[in-house]
Amino acid sequence: MDISHSVGPVTLLEGNTPLIPAPRLAEMVVPGGKLFLKYEGLNPTGSFKDRGMTTAMTQAVADGAKTVICASTGNTAASAAAYAARAGMKCVVLVPDGKIALGKLAGAIAYGAQVVTVLGSFDDGLRMVREASEKAPIALVNSVNPARIQGQKTAAWEVTEQLGTVPDWLCLPVGNAGNITAYWLGFCEGSLLLPQLLGAQAAGAAPIVLGKAVENPDTKATAIRIGNPARWTEAVAALKESNGHILAVSDEEIFAAYHALAKVEGVFCEPSSAAGVAGLLKSVKEGRLDPEGKTFVCVLTGHGLKDPDSAVADAPTTISIPPDTDSLLKALAL
User: Fold this and answer.
1) d(Cα 148, Cα 92) in Å, to the nearest integer?
2) Of 36, 147, 169, 255, which has fewest CB within 10 angstroms of its CB?
């Protein structure tokens, strides 16, 4: 990556996200093991995408681009819009019509992007922006851009620094497969010790697990609703080289992990972020791995407020009372 020395980085001070110990959840998910949560939802726009967007946008500025474009299920759109605003560039984002979480769409709009809805899937949108960037002077900032991977790999270095070593297993959701590719690159460049990788795809959008593209991917975990990952080949190579594995988890399993993260450990992530935890739990239950004495890091890719609808969709009915203390105590059965 050749970035001119005269161009400063386009940054919002991304990175340095916490690695949170999760001892109570560990008892449920990996008995006998240790569990940590890499909470990427505390990046500036609320997702891990910011790590790669700072490098992709810096490269775009160095290359003289005036407009950037991306296809997105939501997080990339918000991140690209914010970093384009920071750089003083125009940003165009393509999102699947009606299939993007409200918090992500709100971010893209707030940061000033031109939002185009596509009557199709994310995969349709990615094809369109790739073709558009070849035909017009527009910089593509999806994870097919190598600068994105260079930025995202820094999370692996942070995990190693915060833990003091590499974990035995790194577990994460897999959608377009850029993140699993970037983590593996970071570990390979940063340490002689290497973790095993566990990838989790939603059952309705599990092309790598199935070994074939999914024409109409379907899952409530919208960030990983992708039927033909751009980094498919690299992800498969990373899984093989790490002696890891990838599996499909149902929406019910994803949402069970999503609720457990919040209620057991107080960590609120978007539903797709919980896929890695769901995949780890399923792997242990099915005997694919023995957690005894092992250290696990689960990557939580986005903040829970990215998808507020999911948080309140199955919430219990609120209690309404008159404005007096006796009514309160009665309602609380105290």
Assistant:
1) 17
2) 255
Amino acid at 275: A
**Residue 51: burial class (beta carbons within 10 Å; 0-12, 13-18, 19+):** buried
pLDDT of residue 334: 62
Strands 169-173 and 139-140: unpaired
What DSSP state is assigned to residue 242?
A: T
Sorted by where each starts, the structural domains of the chain and their CATH numbers stand as 19-46+148-313 (3.40.50.1100), 49-144 (3.40.50.1100)
C-alpha distances (whole Å) from 122 to each of 75, 93, 149, 224 are: 12, 11, 19, 10
Tens digit of pLDDT for each residue in 20-53?
A: 999 999 999 999 999 999 999 999 999 999 999 9
H or E element, residue 295:
strand 295-300
The pLDDT, as a whole number, for residue 4 is: 41
pLDDT reported for residue 101 = 82
* 79, amino acid identity: S
**pLDDT of residue 122 exceeding 50:** yes
Tokens of 37: 């949560």
Distance CA 221, CA 175 (A): 10
Q: Which helix (H) or strand (E) holds 125?
A: helix 122-135
Residue among 98, 55, 12, 107 at smallest CA distance from 302: 107
Run of H or E including 262? helix 251-265
pLDDT for 5 equals 43
The two three-digit tokens of residue 73, written as one number = 């299920």
How is residue 130 written in tokens?
């790739």
The torsion angles phi and psi of 314, rounded to 5 degrees, stand at -120, 30
HSE of 74 in the Cβ direction (CA atoms, 13 Å)? 28
Going by C-alpha positions, the residue among 189, 198, 275 that lies closest to residue 243 is: 198
